[in-house]
Write a structure and sequence with these properties.
By secondary structure, the chain is of the alpha+beta class. A hairpin with a 5-residue loop joins strand 15 and strand 16 (400-404). The chain is built from 16 helices and 16 strands. The protein folds into two domains: 13-170 and 226-317, Bira Bifunctional Protein, Domain 2 (BirA Bifunctional Protein, domain 2, 2-Layer Sandwich); 323-415, Rossmann fold (3-Layer(aba) Sandwich), CATH 3.40.50. The mean pLDDT is 95. Bound molecules: histidyl-adenosine monophosphate.
Length: 424
């Protein structure tokens, strides 16, 4: 048997209702916050990611699915979406119409990481990106949006970490101080981090090797190196979060695994998930649009990891799956024939209808209706057809009533729609 590729997974029908619930909840909220959907391809030129995420990051060095296509061009399955959204903003000159854009995108990402619970090689993100706004209220508003989303999902125990990574003005000073801090710690650093020390010392904060983690515990804090403008920016973000009663922890080692960030970074963590506990992460990336050949427009955004969120919500899948409003139990050839027409008519009227083609006994069709969890069953056999009335059974109250065949569709649709609005 041919099986799935390691680190990839199927999302089975038992789970898709939960996935749709998560996606719809965030989609609606994003639209309330003024975001429009952007759809982008999953394949891009490799250079896009190397230049945006950064050549010395784990993602670019070790995790990308990169291949040469038949013409020899180097292509990569996207490991994240921000770079592609920026590319689209530049390529389609969206900024020319208005520099300010709020865009969201939903889809799979690919990273060849070591698979484990909560970490997959194909995983799904919902990204929100804002262009053209320097104002710290844009950062704070995104965090508010993210935390409102967590609240809508009724997720408790989500901890928000925030940090500021400064700007090209102040970060070089911090890097120098980090380098001199690390200068006499060669023994504690893994070989990867030894390489990173000169090229990209901030990345050492991300390293999971215990000796590296330990040596970084006393590392200097970037927050002590922020220039005035970055300090003010961070202060306003915190002030807004306070004002909206959003609790947060300041985590000066939150550098995130991508090189494009400037100023605010943040992550939402769910302790219940274990080692892979980040359910969302993001931050500001003011230099990225320009670095990729666009105008000097700032950006800020986040991505939510849908796989991890649905894992957190796993207990809630029940009750979300879509059940038929009505099951038609048709007994006998003649009834089956008419019922086939009815089932199509119901669906055209927006009623979820199901039928069994096997012409089984009433008893076994009723069992099937129960298995589907249908709210109503319409029973029609030769006797009912002769008397020109079918029987409608409410599966909750067990009440039955006769419905004249002549007006059957209208009457049944009415009963179902009234019972749906009545129970809301
Ligand atoms: P990221 O932190 O790399 O950020 O990913 C965001 C979220 O995607 C993570 O918090 C996690 O929930 C999920 N995720 C990442 N890798 C995996 C994996 N291997 N398996 C399952 N879930 C995973 C970014 O990708 C940035 N582009 C976010 C951003 C948008 N920054 C600004 N705008």
């Amino acid at each position: 048997m041919i099986k799935l590729v390691r680190g990839f997974k199927d999302i089975l029908p038992a789970d898709t209702a939960l996935w749709q619930y998560v996606e719809t909840t965030l989609r609606e909220l994003l639209e309330d916050f003024g975001f429009a959907e952007l759809r982008i391809p999953i394949l891009e030129q490799t250079e896009l990611f190397a230049r945006s995420i950064g050549a010395n990051t784990d993602i670019v060095e070790k995790e990308m699915y990169t291949f040469a296509d038949r013409k020899g061009d180097s292509l990569t399955l996207r490991p994240e979406a921000t770079a592609s959204v920026v590319r689209a903003y530049i390529q389609h000159k969206l900024y020319a119409k208005d520099p300010v854009w709020k865009l969201y995108t939903i889809g799979p990402m690919f990273r060849r990481e070591r698979p484990q619970k909560g970490r997959y090689r194909q995983f799904y993100q919902i990204n929100a990106e804002v262009f053209g706004l320097h104002d710290p209220r844009a950062d704070a508003e995104l965090i508010l949006l993210l935390m409102t989303f967590m609240r809508r999902l009724e997720l408790s125990g989500i901890v928000l970490h925030i940090n500021s990574l400064g700007c090209p003005e102040c970060r070089p000073r911090f890097k120098e101080s980090l380098k001199s801090f690390l200068a006499d710690r060669s023994e504690q650093l893994c070989s990867d981090c030894l390489g990173r020390r000169d090229k990209n010392p901030l990345r050492i904060f991300d390293c999971k090797v215990p000796s590296c983690k330990e040596s970084m515990q006393d590392a200097p804090s970037i927050l002590d190196y922020l220039c005035h403008a970055c300090q003010n920016h961070f202060f306003t973000v915190k002030e807004i979060l306070d004002r909206f009663n959003i609790p947060y922890e300041i985590n000066h080692s939150l550098v995130r695994g991508l090189d494009y960030y400037t100023r605010t970074t943040f992550e939402a963590l769910a302790g219940a998930l274990g080692a892979q506990d980040a359910v969302a992460g993001g931050g500001r990336y003011d230099g990225l649009v320009k670095a990729l050949g666009g105008p000097d427009q700032p950006g800020v955004g986040f991505a939510v990891g849908v796989d991890r969120l649905t894992e957190l919500l796993a207990g809630r899948a029940q009750g979300l799956e879509k059940r038929p409003d009505i099951f038609i139990a048709a007994i006998g050839e003649r009834a089956q024939d008419i019922a086939f027409q009815w089932v199509q008519d119901f669906r055209l009227q927006g009623v979820r209808a199901e039928i069994d083609f096997e012409n089984r006994s009433l008893k076994s069709q009723m069992r099937r209706a129960d298995k589907f969890g249908a709210s109503y069953v319409l029973i029609a056999g030769d006797r009912e057809l002769d008397s020109k009335a079918a029987v409608l059974r409410n599966m909750t109250t067990k009440e039955q009533k006769e419905i004249p065949i002549q007006d059957l569709i209208g009457l049944v649709v009415n009963t179902i729609k009234t019972s749906i609005t009545g129970s809301e």
